[in-house]
Amino acid sequence: MTFKVAIARDEDGVSVWVPGLPGCWSQGATEAEALANIQAAITEYLAVRDELLDGADVREVEVAA
Question: Exposed/middle/buried for 4, CB within 10 Å: 0-12, 13-18, 19+?
Fold first, then answer.
């Protein structure tokens, strides 16, 4: 699965977030560290999403890009 991420650099390092996943963000001292951290954050975000959907009547829809 691929996600688009946004990156911002400042004097404290690199911040990165996923516009498609509200509240999913991370940071690191370097871009490589920030990208590794956001991978972990995305994994955790999706795990929580799945827990919240447990037992719900769920459907999937396909949307053209």
Answer: exposed
Answer whether 0.85 is exceeded by the pTM: yes
The domain locations on the chain are 6-53
pLDDT per residue as tens digits for the range 22-54: 999 999 999 999 999 999 999 999 999 999 999
Hey, is 6 helix, strand or coil?
Answer: strand
The DSSP output letter for 48 is: H
Query: In CATH, what class is 6-53?
Result: alpha beta
Q: Where are the alpha helices (DSSP H) in 1-65?
A: 31-53
